[in-house]
Amino acid sequence: MESQRPSGGRWFRALRPLFWWLLLVLLLFGIRTHERLSEQTFISFAVNLEGKPVRYEAAVTLDDRPVSTGERVSIGRHRLEVTHPKAEPFGTNLYIWYGERKLGDIKLERTRGVLALHVEPPAAKLSILGDEFTTTLTDSAGITSSIPTDVYRIEARWANHEQTERVNISTKATSSVRLAPSLGVLTLESDPPGATVIGNNGNAMGMTPLTMREMHSGFWKGELRLDGHIPVPLTLTIAANETNTVHTNLVNWGYAQAMESARQYFRSQDYDRTLEVLATALKIKPNDPDATALQKEAAVKEHLLRARALAERREYATARQEAGAALAVDADNPKAKAMLADIQRRQEELLAEQQRKHAEEIAAKERQERLNRPKMFLDSVNQRYLDADLFDSHTIISSKSVKEVSSAIVNVLTNGSPLFQVVRYERPHPEVFTIEAKQGMLGGFRQCVIVGGQTKDDETQLIFKVLEYETHLDVNLGLVRLTDGRPPTVAIHPQRIAQMTAYQQRRLREGVQIVTERVLRAIGQTSVGNN
Fold it and tell me: What angle do CA 488, 494, 495 make, to 5 degrees?
């Protein structure tokens, strides 16, 4: 038996590496399985508020870290919390195991508060208006109710008064609102009865005797109207919690009362109402001298008032009609005569001012045309020449007249060296001359176009261009033919000759220099711009 023990120990020592290798394989398999299952471990949920899904308003955290449905989570114990600005917070402890952890619908409870609304006296219509809760009560003294937290508008209407308040309902708090306006009762009586009561908004409120309940205390303005009687304006003070009674005697449109009203309107310069009341007075007593005299004076003042307003707006024709109407009523009225004369004077001044402005506009237009005329004729002449627009124009100002300058320029062109041949010299306008001169050169020619215009009485503007051309012709047996297919005449300019020679560039500079010196010599100047 003792001889077999060493043999068993040897087997154990031989299998021990295999055992450790198997244990390592199981450990690695467990770790890999854990990682694979962890990748498939996530949480799913949906947040509802009073049966409606909540998306972005709710904040969901897992262990104080924001989490969203479908997001991977770690295995173990966690704390899930949901908050919403209009809901009670929700929280729960979770244990997450491998796979999907379905929480289902998380139902949040809407935060609510208590509105304690007291209305005194009871309102005929009481409305509580909010985004999620709205109710309307009639003949209500108020309400105490639990409602969702929000800002509400409370509208209360009594028989002749309205009031609006705003209230913010907070979570688990009671918001008290008391509407107790100062109201009173107004009773209006008239003798005779049946007068229409007009409120301060211009609407008819009833007929006397009239009792208006639930009127806001303080000042009240209105009017009593009855056919055949003078309207009576009312300004009253309504005392709260009292019955305020006002009795008014309506005065018939008798002659004495009509005249008194007319004089009051006349003193307040309300001439329209004066004439209106006087018309009624004259119906009662036709051709009355006092009423006729006041009517005449009021009509004159009304016409003069309108004439003055029209004259201030420079509507002189209509103003003269109003002043004439005043004189038609009272031909000897000194104020009407003076106003008519003043209107005529101001109308003449306006006409003179308009004529002066018109003359200034014409003069300005003529000055502008005078300034633009040399350039216009230069453009017209340039149309005769090939590629004239490629060359620059040059301007010189002289204090001499057009006639004097034109003859002097022709003289220096035809007598100087090198000589120019004047091919055209014209006076297309009394204040404009055009000179077209040509100078033959080896392999081409130089064309000079000069336009002078009298831009001011003491100023002549000279605009000229120097056009340089070269020709490509050959004479063979008495026939003129092209040498290489190019046009016979080409403008010496970088846009027409890609690679200009030094000779061609010198021609461009010398041509302008020669013409400039000739023009300056003709007008007696030494440099451009010196008069």
Answer: 70
Residue 497 lies in a domain: yes
How far is 107 from 393, CA to CA, in rounded Å?
87
d(Cα 308, Cα 300) in Å, to the nearest integer?
Answer: 12
pLDDT, block means (10 residues), the chain with 531 residues: 55 76 80 73 84 79 86 86 85 84 82 86 88 85 86 88 86 85 87 86 86 83 84 86 84 76 87 86 84 87 87 86 86 86 86 90 91 94 94 94 92 88 94 95 93 93 96 54 64 92 93 94 76 41
Q: pTM for the full model?
A: 0.41
CATH code, domain carrying 285: 1.25.40.10
Residue 359 within any structural domain of the chain? no
Contacts of 187 (CB under 8 A, 6+ apart): 209, 210, 211, 212, 243, 244, 245, 246
Q: Name every residue whose Cβ is closer than 8 Å to that of residue 23 and which is 6 or more positions away in sequence.
A: none
Residues 388 and 484 both lie in one domain: yes
Note down the domain range covering 174. Answer: 112-179
Distance of alpha carbon 347 from its chain centroid, rounded?
38
Residues 16 and 68 grouped into a single domain = no
What is the rounded CA–CA span in Å between residue 478 and residue 97?
114
Cβ-in-10-Å burial (0-12, 13-18, 19+) of 348 comes to: exposed
Provide the domain count of the chain. 6
The answer to the question of residue 374 being in a domain is no
